[in-house]
Amino acid sequence: MTTEEIAKALKLTAQLMELHEVNPFKIKSIANAAYKLDKTDIDLNGKSLEELEQIEGIGKGIASKINELQTTGNLKELNEMVSITPIGVIEMLRIKGIGPKKVRQLWQELEVESIGELLYACNENRLITLKGFGAKTQAEVKKQIEFFQTNIGKFHYASVESFANELVNYLKEKYKTDLVSLTGSIRRKNEIIDSIELLIATDDEIKVDELKNTHQVKIEIFTCSVAEFYKRLIETSNAPECIIEDFKFDSTVRSEKELFELNKLQYIEPELRENSKIIELAKEHKIPKLIELSDLKGILHNHSTYSDGMNTLKEMAVYCKELGYEYLGICDHSQSAFYAEGLKPEKVIEQHKEIDELNKQLFPFKIFKGIESDILNDGSLDYSDDVLKSFDFIVASVHSNLKMNEEKATARLIKAIENPYTTILGHPTGRLLLSRPGYPIDHKKVIDACAANNVIIELNAHPYRLDIDWRWIPYCIEKGVKISINPDAHEKSGYHDMYFGTCVARKGMLTKEMCFNALSLSEIESYFKNRKS
Ligand SMILES: [Zn+2]
Ligand SMILES: [Zn+2]
Fold this sequence. Notes:
With 533 residues, this protein is an alpha/beta fold. It has 22 helices and 12 strands.
């Protein structure tokens, strides 16, 4: 079992214990351990019981549970609770905004045993009769269910990518052909995937059942003849809205590129094949060279143990340098973010001293002094000018009071953008893919304000965020607003999310020239300096 799977099993155990009202003391320690494990990159595989007990946040009891999960693939305690809980009630635990206690009430007092029944109960206003529920909670539960239902069977790209590649390798080996490819939305690297589509040139009939589906994601297999492989690859890769008219085909072509040439079209990278506008550009050979991961020269917007990160500043810097980057921007949370141990002004001074010291040691690599400043409710930044002045750059982000209408959210962002200390607007909508839609903003107004105030927009590269949405990148470019691909890493391994940011940046046709952190160290150093003065 992976650490992630173990964390999930422990989380469910804690939830079900709460649901069945057993031993409140144990619940907390199990829930905390699950939370910790979910956020760590420690590999639990092969660790002995003694080694497990030594991990922070894991005591004797939890260690033996992990051990049981690893050796048997099961947890007796969990199985027993699952067996006495209707499956729909377990599903209800996945609805945001109602914890196990409320789910218990709904189940025991309203006899609601599935998400469908819960939605129906909302429509009949039955929730407001329960203690602790009100019209507001009921409306919120209803909204969450509707969101949940539209997202069922959908996955983050990052969570299925490697599995999809395994399937390609499996088919290549089993059917002894190299003509196997991912196709459809996963080949276009869409941020949300509802099925893995595969194309293979074979005469054999392939049943989806023969693939070991470890992810419960829908799988579709297309087969074709060897001669038609590249034609079918284009047909199945392109989105339905991306149609090449009068498409010419010749069975002698040996690549997709040759087929595009035959049709007098510039090659279109799969990521771009979302609609027919791209075909027009390809006809005129006007598609620019897309950004690549290797174009990125530094990593901005990262957290350390100064706030809510898992690694120390030094560990973050050394690893960044090891990966071959020229600079790191450290942006811990600002003082109002108490839940994330945001930095008080004294802490800022302390961190800056350490950065100066590390910069001597790691030269020519450089750490820039940044902060992720909360955008407060009124749109102001989170420190006095004296403190703001001491940073090389500032990422301004909204983290609290997320329930806003479009007018309020847009005004709040624009006020922050107009603040002369703001360098980068962080995760502009606050969305969490498949779990929270984010506050509504008027994208054009926000991007226009960034253009007017020379503010860069973040493309938060965490696969759950990917915010700003890539569909808005062309408008940013049109307005001359640069994009910074930032992993928002809360531990060293978070840097690798830059890859997912780059995937969607390419979908938005981002070029190296319009990507802020494709600047070299000396370029970005003088940019920050000029901007400060
Ligand atoms: Zn943030
Ligand atoms: Zn952050």
